[in-house]
Amino acid sequence: MSASKKLFIKTYGCQMNVYDSERMAEALGEDGYETTEQMDQADMILLNTCHIREKAAEKVYSELGRLRALKDENPDLKIGVAGCVAQAEGAEIMRRQPLVDLVVGPQTYHRLPDLMAKVNAGQPALDTDFPEEDKFEHLPKRGKSGEALPKRGPTAFLTVQEGCDKFCAFCVVPYTRGAEVSRPSERIVREAQGLVDRGVREITLLGQNVNAYHGHDQGLAGLIWQLAEIDGLDRIRFTTSHPNDMDDALIEAHGTCDKLMPYLHLPVQSGSDRILKAMNRKHTAESYIRLIDRIRDARPDLLLSGDFIVGFPGETDQDFEDTMALVREVGYGQAYSFKYSPRPGTPAAEKEDVPGEIAQERLYRLQELLGEQQRAAQDSMVGRDVLVLFEKPGRLPGQLIGKSEYLHAVHVMADAADLGQIRKVRIEASAPNSLSGKLLAG
Ligand code: 5AD
Ligand code: SF4
């Protein structure tokens, strides 16, 4: 098997897609592909797509349109669409854009080698099943046995749970990723050990609803404690969580598990109980605030992150002010905020939208407030000593970039030998999107 064919993957959307792209590259590696960063040198281009917000499918079709020129130049070029748009659109993609050779959903990419055999035989290859078998068990192993797998950077994503049974009224995930499925903890521990053997020191556990994880009898906390026993694994993170699944053990772990990092992404979406109800969130603003208080009691320095949607159908000025009030009360170190976008097939899509300009104005005000909070949280790090895991060289010679425990990017003048190491850094300055500091001895 010669690794002479080049694969280019473009990844859209969430971290789960980043993880899937990596696993798809590994699966296609068995087929003789190695990844390239240059699209125009690729023998195969794979778009790993996201369907979460509006025009997702349209964006994919226009990207495919742009690939026409490359395919004209190189008729042997293979083009595939993976991810959530592939799942949602299925065969429609090949009908609308005949240059596509392959459509594969998020649950079947372990079958890529078989699908490629079809592609190579000139047949259309489409697979958007929700199969019985566990795809992870059919992918190339990531442990020591797979010596062929190269050494890698010090941080990795690891999907532990997929799908969602919550059915928030705005969200496509239950339709594109299906019902909630948790991977058994032994398999996750095996994969984690394999990553650590290859130099990984920080693992972010992924799931659309990761804290609903039930592949361990003590839930996500149980899995975290089990992973914490792996020598050489120094940092554990997880995302994304639902407030209603923050159980006592998980809250407590934030105070007692040294390897669990003091950063939590816990979306609330809105601060208005009326809107939360319409969103089918099954929690109130007050219950969310009480929950945050409990988590901060366990880990006072926790940096909190969240997601917000403005302009959900029926949102009044007062509802929006309730969201602003919640943000002021809670205080976020980091956040994502979106204008509501109707997704066909979801319950909210049937309702009347808030006028675009009003939603835009609200989004602007919310982002201004969240931006101020984010900046203040980052600025408050100046003068503090933090532990930084160095991930990559910086732009300046002799500079490395790493992440603090709070997930702030930190720029430091340091020796290349510190790559992959965790070192103590005194923070000296805060720039718009990063901190900088100096290495401390020891
Ligand atoms: N419109 C706008 N934002 C959405 N999100 C999910 N669905 C929609 C939608 N239809 C946001 C939510 C979620 C994040 C991943 O994307 O805030 O937490
Ligand atoms: Fe986008 Fe959701 Fe699919 Fe992730 S799971 S790629 S956020 S639609």
Count helical runs.
14
Sheet with most strands? 6 strands, parallel
* Share of residues in strands: 15-25%
Mean pLDDT: 95
* Coarse structural class: alpha/beta
Domains, number: 3
- For the termini, the CA-CA separation is 46 Å
The shape is: globular
Ligands in the structure? 5'-deoxyadenosine, iron/sulfur cluster
Q: How many beta strands in the DSSP annotation?
A: 19
Q: Which oligomeric state applies?
A: single chain
Low-confidence stretches: none
Entry summary:
The protein has helices spanning 15-29, 56-73, 83-89, 92-96, 112-120, 135-138, 173-176, 185-197, 219-228, 248-256, 273-278, 285-298, 317-330, 356-379, and strands spanning 5-11, 33-35, 44-49, 78-82, 102-104, 125-127, 155-159, 161-162, 181-182, 202-206, 235-239, 263-265, 303-310, 334-339, 385-393, 399-404, 409-413, 422-431, 434-439. It is α/β, with parallel strands linked by helices.
Can you offer a commentary on this structure?
- This protein has 442 residues and is α/β, with parallel strands linked by helices.
- The chain has three domains: 5-137, Rossmann fold (3-Layer(aba) Sandwich), CATH 3.40.50.12160; 151-379, tm_1862 like domain (pyruvate-formate lyase- activating enzyme); 385-439, OB fold (Dihydrolipoamide Acetyltransferase, E2P) (Beta Barrel).
- 34% of the residues lie in helices and 22% in strands.
- The protein has a six-stranded parallel beta sheet with strand order 2-1-3-4-5-6, sandwiched between helices. A five-stranded mixed beta barrel has the order 15-16-17-19-18.
- Helix 13 links the parallel strand 13 (303-310) and strand 14 (334-339).
- The mean pLDDT is 95.
- The protein binds 5'-deoxyadenosine and iron/sulfur cluster.
- The site of iron/sulfur cluster has 14 residues, from helix 1, helix 3 and helix 7.
